């Protein structure tokens, strides 16, 4: 297949870079308008959910979102029940791993559950307050989900504008 052909596997990296460029611009623009000066979690999530192939993007979106929700729930429960104590961070992270591994069992992006639990718990530690920790933790989780949604939407839009042949595109690693 020639290098310039729309479905060329040689242009897969270019297509992915374009996905990430457009999605990062959208995330930055929207969050800046909402006065969020540090959208790093949304940007990281957007990159993780962006895939040149839509079916892979949907899989990443679903996996990341489910595990973010697991981590958020575990982090909030530990924060509400235990308060904002340093020793709760390892407990919350470990519980999130167990819930994600044995109950949810979506191995793709399963590390996201303990990362999100740590994010929620650390918000409580930094603020020295359950309520502020809950508020900041939920804000960061919302950023993660927003980034995932934008990554998926841009992947879908780019797939319509610049289709890739399924047979030519490499499979995403699980």
Describe the structure.
The chain is flat and about 50 Å long. The chain has one domain. The protein contains 6 helices and no strands. Helix 3 runs parallel beside helix 5 (112-127). The protein has helices at 12-33, 40-49, 54-82, 88-104, 112-127, 130-161. The protein has 174 residues and is mainly α. The relative contact order is 0.20.
Which key terms come to mind for this protein?
single chain, mainly alpha, disordered N terminus, 174 residues
Explain briefly what this protein structure is.
This protein is an all-alpha fold and 174 residues long. The chain has helices at 12-33, 40-49, 54-82, 88-104, 112-127, 130-161.
**Helix residue percentage:** over 70%
Instruction: Estimate nothing, just give the exact number of structural domains.
Output: 1
Task: Characterize the biggest β-sheet.
Answer: none
State the distance separating the first and last CA atoms. 27 Å
**Shape annotation:** flat
Task: Work out the strand percent.
Answer: under 5%
Summarize model confidence as the mean pLDDT.
82
Number of helices: 6
Order of helices and strands: HHHHHH
Low-confidence segments, ≥5 residues, pLDDT <50?
1-5
Radius of gyration: 18 Å
Number of strands: 0
């Amino acid at each position: 297949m020639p290098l310039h052909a729309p479905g060329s596997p040689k242009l897969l990296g270019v297509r992915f870079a374009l996905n990430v460029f457009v999605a990062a611009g959208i995330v930055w623009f929207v969050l800046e308008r909402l006065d969020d000066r540090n959208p790093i979690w949304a940007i990281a999530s957007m990159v993780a959910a962006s895939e040149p192939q839509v079916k892979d993007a949907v899989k990443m979106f679903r996996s990341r979102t489910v595990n973010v929700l697991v981590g958020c729930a575990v982090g909030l429960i530990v924060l509400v029940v235990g308060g904002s104590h340093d020793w709760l961070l390892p407990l919350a992270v470990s519980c999130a791993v167990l819930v994600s591994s044995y109950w949810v069992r979506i191995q793709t992006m399963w590390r996201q559950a303990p990362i999100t639990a740590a994010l929620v718990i650390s918000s409580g530690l930094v603020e020295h307050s359950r309520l502020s920790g809950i508020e900041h933790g939920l804000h960061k989780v919302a950023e993660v989900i927003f980034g995932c949604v934008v990554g998926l939407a841009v992947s879908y839009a780019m797939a319509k504008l610049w289709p890739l042949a399924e047979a030519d595109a490499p499979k995403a690693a699980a």
